[in-house]
Specification:
3-stranded mixed sheet, 18% strand, 3 helices, 41% helix, alpha/beta, Arc Repressor Mutant, subunit A
Length: 97
């Protein structure tokens, strides 16, 4: 398998973990969203950028952005529907800060 190309992000989210309060911590499952997935969601869903614009910002191909967004949306949907925690960490990223 090819090594992943470095993805550029504008901001690091720091330590972020979101968890539902309706389940005890001991019974809680979780999903991990990588920093590049977090950045792609931020740019697409919050900033309203196109995949082409996101690809330029993250310095990757548009098809890579599509795969990142698909994976991120699946993880977030799984967490919301199945009452799971969301942790944001990891990924092959460099910050522009």
């Amino acid at each position: 398998m090819r090594p992943k190309k470095t993805r550029w992000i504008e901001c690091k989210p720091g330590e972020r973990c979101f968890r539902p309060k309706c389940k005890p911590v001991k019974q809680l499952e979780g999903v991990t969203v990588s920093l590049d997935e977090f950045e792609a969601i931020r740019l697409a869903d919050l900033e309203g950028l196109t995949q082409e614009q996101i690809a330029k910002k993250m310095k990757v191909h548009r098809s890579t952005v599509a795969r990142i967004l698909q994976s991120a949306h699946l993880k977030v949907a799984d967490a919301l529907v199945n009452i799971k925690a969301i942790k944001i960490e990891g990924g092959c990223c460099k910050s522009e800060e």
